[in-house]
Write a structure and sequence with these properties.
Pfam families: Usp. This protein has 8 helices and 12 strands. With 274 residues, it is α/β, with parallel strands linked by helices.
Length: 274
């Protein structure tokens, strides 16, 4: 791992992300690119151009000062940290930063869910996940010494999911994690007998040229199956994939990814495949 991107807005959630990134950077000898995006909109300031330029410079200087203070953390010592200020909140620009600096990962803080309200949908985290061409790790809690030893990847093990599996496998290798493969069997959607599930899984593994073991886990829904299996097996993170499309259908199989990301107590890593 070479570089980790951390978008920050000075919230406690972005500090959670920064601390998580610091743990990973120390373990894998990586640098951190801390990105703060200003929301500058000239239409809100109908003043002469010279005044607007001065006002913009003032905001940028203020942001640079605040970012410098925000990065004065003991857990960042010994890590190569590069602060980056962007004038506009355009999340697609993270791909340009990733390409320019050869970054491997985005670590993003998120509130998660609050009762019945799905905060992840329409949030900054959701926008980053949708736009990013590199993996995005979404965290909601404070981790003092974060590491990924066990990464859960749930799949229906249809052959069209091979690309998602390959990305999850590559990430697991990048962070030296065990990839825990699971098929969630439910009584309502795409139910398979044990024999049929094993046949499908073996066909997938043969195509992937693997001899890995896949757990068949029964639950009432795919979402709850992923969460319950991850908890029962002490997973450090959950791997999901996204098509990068807008709306509720951009995650695999409808809104499953959004539900898992909102409800998960552990970090979720997402991979864009389209």
């Amino acid at each position: 791992m070479k570089k980790i991107i951390v978008p920050v807005d000075f919230s406690k959630q972005s500090e959670y992300a920064l601390k998580t990134a610091a743990s990973l950077a120390l373990k894998h000898n990586a640098g951190i690119l801390v990105v703060h995006m200003l929301e500058l909109n000239n239409s809100l300031n109908p003043t002469p151009e010279v005044v607007n330029q001065e006002y913009t410079v003032f905001l940028i200087k203020a942001a640079e000062k605040r970012l410098k203070e925000f990065l004065d953390k003991p857990y960042l010592k010994g890590i190569n940290v590069t602060p980056i200020i962007k004038h506009y909140k355009v999340f697609s620009e993270l791909n340009e930063i990733a390409e320019m600096h050869d970054a491997d990962l985005v670590v993003m803080g998120s509130h998660g869910s609050d009762g019945l309200k799905e905060i992840f949908v329409g949030s900054n985290a959701e926008k980053v996940v949708r736009h990013s061409l590199i993996p995005v790790l979404v965290v909601k809690n404070d981790y003092k010494d974060f590491k990924i030893d066990r990464l859960v990847f749930a799949s229906n093990f249809k052959l069209k999911g091979m690309k998602a599996f390959e990305k999850a496998k590559a990430f697991a290798e990048l962070v030296s994690a065990e990839l825990d493969l699971v098929y969630i069997n439910t009584p309502y959607s795409d139910f398979l007998s044990t024999e049929d599930a094993v046949t499908r899984i073996n066909k997938f593994l043969a195509k992937a040229n693997l001899v890995d073991q896949v757990e068949i886990y029964n639950d009432y829904s795919v979402e709850m199956g992923i969460l319950n299996y991850s908890k029962a097996n002490a997973a450090d993170a959950i791997a999901l994939w996204t098509h990068g499309r807008k709306g509720l259908a951009h995650f695999f199989s409808g809104s499953i990814g959004e539900d898992v990301t909102n409800r998960a107590k552990i970090p979720v890593i997402t991979f864009r495949i389209g």
